[in-house]
Amino acid sequence: MNTINVTPSSNAKHTLIAAPSQVVLINEHGKQDDKKLTVGFRCHPDLKRKLVQKAGEAGITLSEYLELRLNREDNLPNKADPKKFEAINEQLSRLQKKITMYENPTLIKYYEKMKDMSFDFQDSNGNDKSIRVTSPKDVFELMLASFKIDL
Fold first, then answer.
1. 85-110 residue pLDDT tens
2. DSSP string, 44-69
3. At 38, is the secondary structure helix, strand, or coil?
4. Residue 23: its H or E element
Protein backbone atom coordinates (compact mmCIF):
# COMPACT_ATOMS: atom_id res chain seq x y z
CA MET A 1 0.00 0.00 0.00
CA ASN A 2 1.35 3.44 -0.98
CA THR A 3 0.76 6.62 1.02
CA ILE A 4 1.10 10.05 -0.59
CA ASN A 5 0.56 13.43 1.07
CA VAL A 6 -1.44 15.77 -1.16
CA THR A 7 -2.66 19.33 -0.91
CA PRO A 8 -5.96 19.91 -2.72
CA SER A 9 -7.03 23.36 -3.91
CA SER A 10 -8.55 24.06 -0.49
CA ASN A 11 -4.97 23.92 0.95
CA ALA A 12 -6.09 21.43 3.61
CA LYS A 13 -3.66 18.57 4.16
CA HIS A 14 -4.80 15.16 2.92
CA THR A 15 -3.25 11.74 2.73
CA LEU A 16 -3.91 9.58 -0.29
CA ILE A 17 -3.81 5.86 0.47
CA ALA A 18 -3.59 3.71 -2.64
CA ALA A 19 -4.01 -0.04 -2.61
CA PRO A 20 -4.31 -2.17 -5.77
CA SER A 21 -8.11 -2.27 -5.58
CA GLN A 22 -8.98 1.10 -4.05
CA VAL A 23 -7.83 4.65 -3.44
CA VAL A 24 -8.93 6.48 -0.29
CA LEU A 25 -8.39 10.13 0.55
CA ILE A 26 -8.01 10.81 4.28
CA ASN A 27 -8.39 14.42 5.46
CA GLU A 28 -6.35 16.14 8.18
CA HIS A 29 -8.83 14.89 10.82
CA GLY A 30 -8.24 11.25 9.86
CA LYS A 31 -11.59 10.84 8.13
CA GLN A 32 -12.30 9.74 4.57
CA ASP A 33 -12.77 12.77 2.30
CA ASP A 34 -15.05 12.56 -0.75
CA LYS A 35 -14.53 16.14 -1.95
CA LYS A 36 -13.40 16.60 -5.53
CA LEU A 37 -9.70 17.13 -6.15
CA THR A 38 -7.81 18.70 -8.99
CA VAL A 39 -5.97 16.16 -11.12
CA GLY A 40 -3.45 17.31 -13.70
CA PHE A 41 -1.79 15.50 -16.57
CA ARG A 42 0.39 16.34 -19.53
CA CYS A 43 -0.94 15.97 -23.06
CA HIS A 44 -0.23 17.20 -26.55
CA PRO A 45 -1.74 20.64 -27.35
CA ASP A 46 -3.78 19.17 -30.22
CA LEU A 47 -5.41 16.71 -27.82
CA LYS A 48 -6.25 19.51 -25.39
CA ARG A 49 -7.78 21.60 -28.20
CA LYS A 50 -9.87 18.60 -29.25
CA LEU A 51 -11.06 18.00 -25.68
CA VAL A 52 -11.88 21.69 -25.16
CA GLN A 53 -13.82 21.72 -28.45
CA LYS A 54 -15.84 18.61 -27.50
CA ALA A 55 -16.59 20.06 -24.06
CA GLY A 56 -17.74 23.30 -25.69
CA GLU A 57 -19.98 21.42 -28.12
CA ALA A 58 -21.53 19.63 -25.15
CA GLY A 59 -22.02 22.98 -23.36
CA ILE A 60 -19.95 21.96 -20.32
CA THR A 61 -16.54 22.79 -18.91
CA LEU A 62 -13.43 20.83 -19.81
CA SER A 63 -13.30 19.53 -16.25
CA GLU A 64 -16.90 18.28 -16.40
CA TYR A 65 -16.31 16.73 -19.84
CA LEU A 66 -13.19 14.84 -18.70
CA GLU A 67 -14.92 13.62 -15.55
CA LEU A 68 -17.83 12.29 -17.63
CA ARG A 69 -15.43 10.58 -20.05
CA LEU A 70 -13.48 8.95 -17.23
CA ASN A 71 -16.63 7.81 -15.42
CA ARG A 72 -17.99 6.34 -18.64
CA GLU A 73 -15.08 3.89 -18.63
CA ASP A 74 -17.12 1.64 -16.31
CA ASN A 75 -19.85 1.38 -18.96
CA LEU A 76 -17.55 0.28 -21.76
CA PRO A 77 -17.60 -3.39 -22.74
CA ASN A 78 -14.84 -5.51 -21.35
CA LYS A 79 -12.22 -5.93 -24.07
CA ALA A 80 -11.57 -9.44 -22.83
CA ASP A 81 -15.18 -10.46 -23.51
CA PRO A 82 -15.48 -11.19 -27.25
CA LYS A 83 -19.18 -12.12 -26.93
CA LYS A 84 -20.08 -8.54 -26.01
CA PHE A 85 -18.11 -7.19 -28.95
CA GLU A 86 -19.68 -9.76 -31.26
CA ALA A 87 -23.18 -8.71 -30.16
CA ILE A 88 -22.33 -5.02 -30.65
CA ASN A 89 -20.87 -5.72 -34.10
CA GLU A 90 -23.98 -7.69 -35.12
CA GLN A 91 -26.24 -4.86 -34.00
CA LEU A 92 -24.08 -2.34 -35.86
CA SER A 93 -24.22 -4.47 -39.00
CA ARG A 94 -28.04 -4.68 -38.82
CA LEU A 95 -28.32 -0.91 -38.40
CA GLN A 96 -25.94 -0.24 -41.29
CA LYS A 97 -28.06 -2.45 -43.55
CA LYS A 98 -31.16 -0.50 -42.55
CA ILE A 99 -29.69 2.88 -43.42
CA THR A 100 -28.23 1.82 -46.78
CA MET A 101 -31.75 2.05 -48.22
CA TYR A 102 -31.68 5.81 -47.61
CA GLU A 103 -28.24 6.16 -49.24
CA ASN A 104 -29.55 5.09 -52.66
CA PRO A 105 -28.14 7.58 -55.24
CA THR A 106 -31.49 8.03 -56.98
CA LEU A 107 -33.26 8.67 -53.67
CA ILE A 108 -30.58 11.21 -52.72
CA LYS A 109 -30.95 12.94 -56.11
CA TYR A 110 -34.73 13.21 -55.62
CA TYR A 111 -34.22 14.46 -52.08
CA GLU A 112 -31.88 17.22 -53.27
CA LYS A 113 -34.47 18.36 -55.85
CA MET A 114 -37.42 18.15 -53.44
CA LYS A 115 -35.73 19.45 -50.27
CA ASP A 116 -37.93 21.89 -48.29
CA MET A 117 -40.92 21.34 -50.63
CA SER A 118 -44.33 20.40 -49.19
CA PHE A 119 -46.62 17.76 -50.67
CA ASP A 120 -50.21 16.70 -50.05
CA PHE A 121 -50.97 13.03 -50.65
CA GLN A 122 -53.06 10.07 -49.54
CA ASP A 123 -51.46 7.26 -47.57
CA SER A 124 -52.13 3.58 -48.31
CA ASN A 125 -55.29 3.76 -46.15
CA GLY A 126 -56.70 6.68 -48.15
CA ASN A 127 -56.03 9.23 -45.43
CA ASP A 128 -55.06 12.73 -46.57
CA LYS A 129 -51.56 13.66 -45.42
CA SER A 130 -49.13 16.48 -45.88
CA ILE A 131 -45.37 16.23 -45.66
CA ARG A 132 -42.46 18.64 -45.93
CA VAL A 133 -39.34 17.02 -47.35
CA THR A 134 -36.56 17.36 -44.80
CA SER A 135 -34.78 14.02 -45.31
CA PRO A 136 -34.45 11.18 -47.81
CA LYS A 137 -36.89 9.27 -45.61
CA ASP A 138 -39.62 11.77 -46.53
CA VAL A 139 -38.98 11.19 -50.25
CA PHE A 140 -39.17 7.46 -49.67
CA GLU A 141 -42.51 7.86 -47.86
CA LEU A 142 -43.86 9.91 -50.79
CA MET A 143 -42.70 7.27 -53.27
CA LEU A 144 -44.43 4.52 -51.30
CA ALA A 145 -47.64 6.56 -51.15
CA SER A 146 -47.61 7.01 -54.93
CA PHE A 147 -48.29 3.30 -55.45
CA LYS A 148 -51.67 1.83 -54.74
CA ILE A 149 -51.42 -1.92 -54.23
CA ASP A 150 -54.47 -3.96 -53.29
CA LEU A 151 -53.48 -6.95 -51.20
1. 788 888 988 888 888 877 788 889 99
2. -HHHHHHHHHHHHHHTS-HHHHHHHH
3. coil
4. strand 22-27
